[in-house]
Structure formats: C-alpha cells, structure tokens
Amino acid sequence: xxxxxxxxxxxxxxxxxxxxxxxLQAVRDGFISLMPIIIFSSxxxxxxxxxxxxxxxxxxxxxxxxxxxxxxxxxxxxxxxxANVARALTRSKNVRLPKVDQMPEAAVMFGAQISFLLVAVDxxxxxxxxxxxxxxxxxxxxxxAFLVAFxxxxxxxxxxxxxxxxxxxxQVPQNISSAFTNIIPFAFSTTFFWLFDVVFRTLxxxxxxxxxxxxxxxxxxAADGYAGLAIVYGAMAFFWFIxxxxxxxxxxxxxxxxxxxxxxxxxxxxxxxxxTNILAQGTQYFVATIGGTGATLIITYMFALMSKSKExxxxxxxxxxxxxxxxxxxxxxxxxxxxxxxxxxxxxxxPILNVWLFKFFVDVLGMNAFIYNLPxxxxxxxxxxxxxxxxxxxxxxxxxxxxxxxVCYYPFFKVYDAQKVAEExxxxxxxxxxxxxxxxxxxxxxxxxxxxxxxxxKDLNILVICAGGGTSGILANSLNKMAKQDDLPVEAAAAAxxxxxxxxxxxxxxxxxxQMDAMRDSLxxxxxxxxxxxxxxxxxxxxxLTRHADKALDFIVNRLKGVDGAVDSGHTPESxxxx
Length: 579
Description:
By secondary structure, the chain is mainly α. The chain folds into 3 domains: 1-212, no CATH class; 220-426, no CATH class; 451-561, Response regulator (Rossmann fold). The chain has helices spanning 2-10, 12-19, 22-32, 35-53, 60-71, 77-94, 105-120, 142-161, 174-181, 183-204, 208-223, 226-241, 247-270, 281-288, 297-306, 310-324, 329-334, 344-363, 380-387, 392-426, 470-486, 520-529, 539-547, 549-560, and strands at residues 123-126, 129-132, 460-466, 490-496, 509-512, 533-536. The strands form 2 sheets. A 4-stranded parallel β-sheet has the order 4-3-5-6, sandwiched between helices. Strands 1-2 form a two-stranded antiparallel sheet. α21 links the parallel β3 (460-466) and β4 (490-496). α12 (226-241) packs antiparallel against α18 (344-363) and α23 packs across α24. It is a multi-pass membrane protein. GO terms for molecular function: kinase activity; protein-N(PI)-phosphohistidine-sugar phosphotransferase activity.
C-alpha cells in the first residue's frame, strides 16, 4: 500500500493541474450560485407532491400555484446556467487582462443568455403572436448552456485583448463609453451563434440542445450502469485520497446528468411510474459519500466510540457532528484518512459498494431513485429518506448501507487503531494528557492586530475559503464570536470556492483551506489583483485552526506580520504533497 500511495503522489501535480482547469472551475463555480434556486424550487415541489404519498391531494389551484414556482425556476435553469458559468469564466479570464481593460461580467452574461436562446429554443407562432418552447430551457439544455458559456467569454476576451472595440473620445462620460465598448464583442458573440444556428438547423433539422441530448443518450445510459457508477464515485474518492477535492474534478462532468436524471425521475414519479435513474446529486450526497467523500460517517463514529487510541478517539469525537452534516475535512485531515495507506482500499471501494447497493434496491426491489434535490448538508440518512420520496424501502437501505460501511472499514480501523495505540505506548502518550499545550489559550489584543495594512483602517476583514463553505463557516463563525466577546476589530466571512468573487475585493486577507490547494495559483492571481493577502494552510493545521479561534487569529496576525505563525498541534508538520 505504501508503494501504491507513493506512485499516486507522483501523479498529484497532473491532477492538481486538472482540478485548476478554468473551464471545470467555471462549471462548478457557476452552479454554486445556482444552488439556492435548485434547493428553493425543490421545497415547493416537495410540498406539492409529498402529501400524495399518504393519499392527500391539493386542490388544483393550490397545486398549480406550487408547481408554478418550480417551473419558473428549474424550468429555466439552463438559461441561468449559461449566464452564471459565463460569468465565472469571465472572472478567470479577467485576471489575465489589465485592470483598465476588464470584460464586463453583466454584458458577457447577457450575451451568453441570448446566444443560448438562439441555439436551444424553438420559436413558434399562433394567432396571438410569436412564442418559443421552453423544452430545453430547463435541465435538458444544460450541456448546450455550458458550451455557449465557454465560447462567449472567449470571444469577448479576444476582442478586449486585441482592442477590437469602439473607442470614444476621453471627453465622453465613462458609463456611455463603456456601453459602446461592449457593442462589438456582443455583436460578434450573438452573430456567431445566430449563423451557427441557421447552418446547424438546416443540416440536422433540430436545435443544438436537442441534438446533444440525442447524441449523448448512450453515455447517460452507460453512466447509470454499475461500471459507470463505479468510475464516477470511485474517481471522486480517489482524487480526495490524494489530497485534491474530488467533486471539483468529477462533478462538472456529471452535473448535467445529475439534474436531468432527477427531473426525469420526478416526472416518472408524478405519472405513477418507477423512477429508475441512479446518477443524481442525492446519490452522491446521501449514498456514495454519506458523511462526505469516502463514506466517512461510520468510520468517524468508529473512531469516536470504539477506538482504544486516545488520539483517534479525540479526533472522532471532535469530527462526529461536522461529518454527520457532510463536512468531513476534520476526519480526512485529522486522522488522517487521505494519503494514509491503511485506508486506501476502503476509502475507494466503500462509496462504490454503497451506490451499487442503492442500484440493486432500485432495479431489483423496485424502490424509487432520487426525485428531489436537497442541500448537501442534510444528514445522510435523512437526505436518503426524503430525497427518494419517503420510500419505505429507503429505511431498510439506510440500515444496509451503515452495516456495509462498518464491514468495509472495520478491519482497516482495527489495524490503524492498534498502530496508534502502539505509538502512544512507545511515546508515553498513555500517561500524558495528549496535546495539553495545544489547549493553552493564546491572547490576541487589539493592539496586536495590524490595522495599518487594512483597507478601511478600522477592522481586519478575513475571508476563509474552502470547497463547500462548511469548515470555512466554522472558522469564520468562531473568529466572529471571539471578536465580539473580546471586542476585537475583526470581521470574518466564509465562502465556498467559486462563490468568493463578490466578497474578495473588500477583504484584507484570505485564508485558503488545504483541500483547495490545487486552486492556490488561481486564487493568488485574484488576490493580487484585489490587493488582498493570501494565507495557505496544511491539513491538520487548518483543522486545529477551526477548533481554536484564538490560535487562528494569532496565526493570521503573525503571517501578516511576516512571523512564522504555524500552529503547534502536537504533530509533525505535513509536507505540501500531503495536502
């Protein structure tokens, strides 16, 4: 196993580069801002349909009103995705342009939306006037929306890079001048897709979005099979094991399938048919990666309740609540599980077996697959029960998954626990309070905070960024609580990577969680442009910061002052390759 892990580590730079690809980032970041829409619309569909399970049906007027919210949000998801993904890509492209020649995000978004409508929507007329079909404005048009969102910002980028714009005299007010600057790239973008649509419809007699769905239907089917599911969820676990946030690479490739499958399942359920599509966000959140990537819910509670090692027991107890809500960085870096040869096999195989078991329940036992989208922070067993429409068989499946995960992890847990017990015995850890010094409070007064380098001269504004906003939220909340108690001039905010763009310019310092290390260069470029200091962290160091706000602030202040602010967690510092 040690040899396998060493070989994997050698390939880590390639996978980090893949994870930092600006197009994958754009899809992921664009969808982060769409998640409130997806979740909000799902609430209305839950209220509309769930009572039907117990024989209660809303009056037609109430049902239509509830479904209207869903149709007017999820029903135009691709139109919004074209705009948001284009905006995310524009931000990445703008880093490469001078500050005086930045592409306007709003103009690119409008160009992407119009271009998407040109190639994905079928117009029709009746006696009342001109209309257009919404068939591919929802989840079915997502892949088409991504393609449009990739091309439009590049057209704008070429125009702005080579100054192919209308320049007005300096005497013209800037707001008027900027409007004229956008005319040529906007015209190029929309004209390109208009001409493409004319040729494409002439050759294929259909729109681009419909053609893509037809062409990729075999891929959709294959991805929903046992082999496809193993590749998708095994890859997520593999990338996380080598220290790269797995969903950041895999999710952009399957997001369109996720949402299309859930909508198809919902329509089948509403029609009284069997919802059979397996690949869905709920499958990822509440089955394959229950408790977080690697299906870490059970192993965390095994550490907390069954471990003889004092260190592992402490890590398990500290991680239990976050992991229950899908925030598993504390156990990934605290145990650690990632890049730990002992856990290589169960970390990769357990998510695959979980989703295979789910597919068995759906295909053989007749349980419905996921018909609703729920927030990723919903505890796994609850999310599985609700997401499948409160299916009775899902309760049996939950128990089966927990037993399966216990069986998968138990032998490896026993080996690692015994190893840790032996280490503690040899070092005398069984007679000394572990990490005693680590609990000593660190005093940080107002005078120690370097307000002279802040933008407003009043508060040190800190932004913490992680993959999903989980652990960053824990750290930011702890800092704000301590600042309020001790009357310190500190304000902290948290964001998922991709949702940080609007917050970054107003910050003085950004703290990057270790799971986003692959994005470090990209974020550094953004931080430099916004005149924001960036601080990176290692695995156990970051987890220790989330648990001790005083040490976190001391760490940040020392780094800003150019002092080594590493947190002493009682462990050997990790190498960059380990995070």
